[in-house]
Amino acid sequence: MASDTAKRKIGIFGGTFDPIHYGHLTIGQLALEVCQLDELYFVPAGNPPHKAFQHVTEAMHRFTMVKMAVSSHPQFRVCDYEIKRKNPSYSMHLLTNFREKFPEDELYLVMGADSFLELELWYHYKELFSLVHIVVMNREGSDILSLEERASCYKTDYHADIILITSICLDVSSSMLRQRVKNHLPITHLTTENVVRYINEEQLYLKQVKNRA
Ligand code: ATP
What we know:
Largest sheet: 6 strands, parallel
Number of strands: 6
Bound molecules: adenosine-5'-triphosphate
Shape: globular
Strand content: 15-25%
Helix content: 40-55%
Strand order of the largest sheet: 3-2-1-4-5-6
CATH class: Alpha Beta
CATH architecture: 3-Layer(aba) Sandwich
Number of domains: 1
Number of helices: 9
């Protein structure tokens, strides 16, 4: 029988990643360190239900950029589960898939403060709490008291395990990068060199710009 010490800690970090930026990578690193994760899977969304009304860059481009950005990190991985699904995918599907893949391990779902505060809009969100620990990264503009109150409610009502990382992550967003590319401004300080090169080669973000919801 496998002993408790053999359990691994697996992080799951979903996002649109349109494109991936240093904020995402910093969140990933903090989650690894604070929760002592063994590995962290970045999961680019295929056709995200909550952003269905916006224009989102083709999944293969977003997936390729994530792959490039995490390629040199020994504990970062990329998961293509969502981009391969034909129908819109919800987090419950993804987490059930991870649970099947890692039946013995502990799962940690990583997200930013804005996503955490929208959790009630997620499909069957209460079921998440019995499947995963939730790691919430504070974000510029978020109110830490609201985060703490919400975490405390979920703990009391659903026995959720919520890990709040209260230091502010970098003040950067994918919308900011898209806007800067459109305005022909540099983004080399906001994402990795190979991603910058890819954006230039594929001529991404020169036309449409959408703000963070
Ligand atoms: P957009 O500007 O297009 O809305 P985004 O920068 O928020 O994009 P997403 O891919 O939508 O990027 O975010 C994936 C996850 O990462 C979300 O849970 C989001 O809250 C979190 N996140 C992204 N950037 C930051 C940041 N700078 N600080 C904290 N959390 C962040």
